[in-house]
Amino acid sequence: MTKHILVLGGGVIGLSCAFELKRRGFAVTLLEPRTCGGQASGAAAGMLAPFSENVEQPDPFFKLCLRSLQLYPEWQRAVKEVSGFDFEYAETGSLYTIYHGADIQAMESRKLWQNEHGARCELLSAHELRELEPRITSDAIGALHYPGESHVYAPDYVKALEAACKRIGVVIRDGLEQIDIVRWNGGAEVRSAAGERFCGDTLLVANGAWAGLLEAEFGMSIPVYPIRGQICAYETPDKPVRHMVFCSQGYVVGKRNGTLVCGASEDVAGFQTAVTRRGIARLESWNGKLFPFLGSMRPFHEWAGLRPASQDGFPLLGKPSRSDSLLIAAGHYRNGILLSPVTAHVIADIAEGRNPGGSAVAAFDPERFS
């Protein structure tokens, strides 16, 4: 008899897990109170940059991110083929800019350990940097160049995932307003605001920033909370930025549609997703210093999403010992898009009773806070 899994949450993590679980032969029903991809997923810049964004050491989180980057070429092809929906997957590489000579030694050290993990990065001089990015500030004295990093256009990627899920038979029910968990041990059962009941063998909690609200329900500590991330975009039809470009303050990334995305300004605002002038002003205060042409421009689009941050910065990923029918995939913070393939593979491996990666995945034990 086919095992039936209920997926709670229609963001990029829930959709990715549903897609992989269905590909492996499970019956899958995905349940979403609002709309699929409506929070952190659709609002993300879509960067696949584990080297640029993990700068200190090759800890388990970095290794998980790197593993996911390595899965992306095949993963994005599969999503496109199944969905029949194209989305931008750009292997542009990235640059991490350097402003001060005192930072060179630290960048050399970073280059050393990251190249041991396949980064293939080079430390560029100011002249070499401006050959790659002619319009970058003259204040930059160099950069680390990562040729293997890439990005996706997140809104289209999430739409393609949803379409792929539907095409292979995942049942998606969104707009349910509220979902109450009736049973999560010895099987799974949930109820919508309208009283509709959904039953399965296993419940996968993948509802992003809302996972922390289930602590009392499961009797375990789930320190996942929302961080508002504000982003803006500029109309740049001449595509003046060729790479993902990082600095200590944030990033800019050019998209195929001619927009230049700048992010991200973060603050704690509960579940509020309103854009604030203060938040966007933070972005404007530094992006014009990175690319001077932005100093005379104003964003044409501003938006915000809720990023599911965990207490230690690592996601909660796996099967709690307290239940034979509960899985958790939450707390991915800024890395939901990047981590979507590896999370889907890990969850599907666990659902099949397989070892998803040994000690590397043990660091993300969902019961570690309990």
Question: Explain this structure to me?
Answer:
This protein is α+β, with helices and mostly antiparallel strands and 370 residues long. The chain folds into 2 domains: 4-49 and 155-224 and 312-362, 3-Layer(bba) Sandwich (FAD/NAD(P)-binding domain), CATH 3.50.50; 91-149 and 225-310, D-Amino Acid Oxidase, subunit A, domain 2 (D-Amino Acid Oxidase, Chain A, domain 2, 2-Layer Sandwich), CATH 3.30.9.10. It has 10 helices and 20 strands. It has helices spanning 12-23, 50-53, 60-83, 104-115, 126-132, 154-167, 215-218, 277-290, 336-351, 359-362; strands at residues 4-8, 27-31, 47-48, 89-90, 94-98, 122-125, 142-146, 150-152, 171-173, 179-183, 188-192, 197-200, 202-205, 224-235, 244-247, 250-254, 259-267, 301-310, 316-318, 326-330. It has an 8-stranded mixed β-sheet, sandwiched between helices. Strands 9-2-1-13-20-19 form a 6-stranded mixed β-sheet, with helices on one face. The radius of gyration is 21 Å and the shape is globular. It starts with a strand and ends in an 8-residue tail after the last helix. The mean pLDDT is 96. GO terms for molecular function: flavin adenine dinucleotide binding; glycine oxidase activity. Pfam families: DAO. This is glycine oxidase.
Key words describing this protein structure:
single chain; 370 residues; alpha+beta; FAD/NAD(P)-binding domain; D-Amino Acid Oxidase, Chain A, domain 2; 6-stranded mixed sheet; 10 helices; 20 strands; FAD-dep_OxRdtase; FAD/NAD-bd_sf; glycine oxidase
